[in-house]
Amino acid sequence: MLKKTGRLRFLTLGVSLLVVLAWGRPLVADLDAPRAEDSSIAYIVTMQLRSKHLSRHPLDDEISQRGFELFFKTLDPNKTYFTKADIDEFSGKSKQLDDMVRKGDIAFAYDVYKRFLQRLDERVKLVDEFLDGPQDFTIDEEFQVDRRKAAYAASADEVRELWRKRVKLDLLSQKAEGKSLEDARNWVRKRYHNLIAKRWHQVTADELLEMYLSSLTTAYDPHTTYMSPSQYDNFMIQMRLQLDGGIGAKLQADDDGTAKVAEVVRGGPADKAGELKTGDKISAVAQGEDGEFVEVVDLRLNDIVMMIRGKPGTTVRLKVTPNGTQEVKIYKITRDRVELTDAEAHGEVFEIGKKADGSAYQVGFIELPSFYMDLQGAREGKPDFKSTTRDVRKILDEFRTNAVDAVVLDLRENGGGSLSEAINCTGLFIDEGPVVQVKDFDGQVRPYDDEERGTAWEGPLVVVTSKLSASASEIFAGAIQDYGRGVVVGDKTTHGKGTVQTLLDLTSVLQFQKFGALKLTIQQFYRPSGDSTQERGVLADVELPSIYTHLDIGEADLDYALKFDRVAAVEFKKLHNVSPAIVEKLRQESGNRLNASKDFQKVVADVARYEESKQKPISLNEKKFMEQRGDSDMKDPLEEPTPKAPGIKRTFYVEEVLAITADYARLLAEQGAN
Asked: What kind and span of H or E run contains 166?
């Protein structure tokens, strides 16, 4: 199905990762110096950067300075922990990091991190001091939350004033949630002691190495990163949508130090057992039928997850406090393969509007959270490896059986995935031709085609995107738009990630134990028309109001993003499913509905308030703070009207997408009749 002008590697374009790291690795606090293996990892990472990165930028003083700044930004993005004196002291080495890491020397990371922990402990003491002192919420003073452009505190007095106001803001935020001042004090104290201080003190050597090396790799571009062994494992889990030996529960750290169940995966072992529920808290874990319970309160969430995981067929026992109770129960769950079905394609058929014969339009709606593929299964030649294209084709087959009038493909939360799956999935909607052009490290541009004749769906197609839609999503949406195959609806533009990454398993290079992987930018992709989606993204044909359009979350907002450019267009057969007249008519009819929609007008008003206030400091006068708080309840276009449950929710946003789709189907029918 995929035409290759060169050897196509398994490429990845950015997917969300499960936050699960290795259990039992040394903590930073237990180490006086980097481990021996860190030197080998650092050396091979820098060697690959110098020889294979798309930009061909040398590992030099410029990259060193960028990496220096990014490392401090990773640890202290709002400049509240380090002082100006700290930065001045360390800046003497800001242009030496390239030379040091090229030799495998990462001692700088340990020196900085130890100072960071020292400053963090000092700040927590300040928090306790201010929480124990009096608070006057009638004073007219302000706090600038976004301190990215602020200077580091230059004196002890500046540090104290900064943290006095920060604690005051934390207390006001909790009072706004309905807490008494005493409860607010307890919550803030617990947050800094448990969720901040303890968590940072429990960072592992793997995590520190990942933070430091990724600061240097992202100095080349935002998507070139080093993955620790556990992060690499989780990346592969997400790509194949399977986890062997889990219980099927997503956890999050709770304020009291326990692990709270954020979600029970449908069809997983915990779901089948029927006891563990969303909101339950886990305080201890035991292995097997009679293993001793190990308390997990205040442990790193990643460690708790790895304690719960194990071989399929084995038993894990959990001490659980069910949501809303004080009772402690013991749940026994047998580990098994967990299918991460929430991340795979799923579809439903909705009715909307009326056709000429009076019946409703039947619209097939597909949610596609990522372009996934089981890379290992594909490499091993397994005939049934997990594939986006297979899943979407099955859904389209069902839609045809149900005689739908149009199809919607929702990519609003799709951050990317497999390049080959993006190409193959596009091929379900076009009858062969170039889908994407790829420029390599050597500057050569090669087209990649869908070669399979025929389509799985030839009728009206609407693609829904947001500023969160990236990489593979932009390849798909850009090709559909270039071909005139369908209409793109959503935020003003997509994320703007037009680069291609490959995964280099360092284990295969170093021939040692698992040492993680380097995700390396090696190519840039371009639409059939020759435009890159890098920085610019894919512009919507019909734009819907959204707060995301106005947030600084696009590629262009990232540090050291590569720039937009063009290559020559390739020849392809333009279709006639979209015309300027159709797009203009869709915009007019949608605009009329938006003007009459209370929900969308609320979004418009929220956006206006956001634009007006985003640079303003927050008042620490309680009365004014509460007034500001009351004005900032923005409506999220991805928000669900009810708690998470199976099925696609017909939010006000989805309703408008369905209405646009019905309009589009009608206009195409009228065009065909003429």
From this structure: helix 156-176
| pTM for the model | 0.79
**What one-letter code names the amino acid at 650?**
R
CB-CB contact of 248 with 270 (8 Å): yes
Q: Which residues contact 108 (CB under 8 A, 6 or more apart)?
A: 90, 93, 97, 100, 212
pLDDT tens for 603-616 read 999 999 888 877 78
CATH homologous superfamily of 341-500+515-673? 2-enoyl-CoA Hydratase; Chain A, domain 1 (3.90.226.10)
| DSSP state, residue 603 | H
Which residues have C-beta within 8 Å of that of residue 78, sequence separation ≥ 6? 145, 146, 147, 148, 150
Q: Which amino acid is at 152?
A: Y
Domain 243-339 = CATH 2.60.120.10: no
Cβ proximity of 609 and 632 under 8 Å: yes
Distance CA 215, CA 286 (A): 38
Task: State yes or no: pLDDT of 527 exceeds 90.
Answer: yes
Domain range list for the chain: 33-220, 243-339, 341-500+515-673
Secondary structure of residue 470 in the 3-state scheme = coil
Instruction: With beta carbons less than 8 A apart as the criterion, state whether 186 and 132 touch.
Output: no
- Residue 196 per-residue DSSP state: I
Instruction: Looking at 53-155, list the stretches that DSSP marks H as alpha helix, in order from N- to C-terminal side.
Output: 61-75, 84-90, 97-102, 107-132
Distance between first and last Cα of the chain? 35
CA angle 207, 522, 44 (to 5 degrees): 45
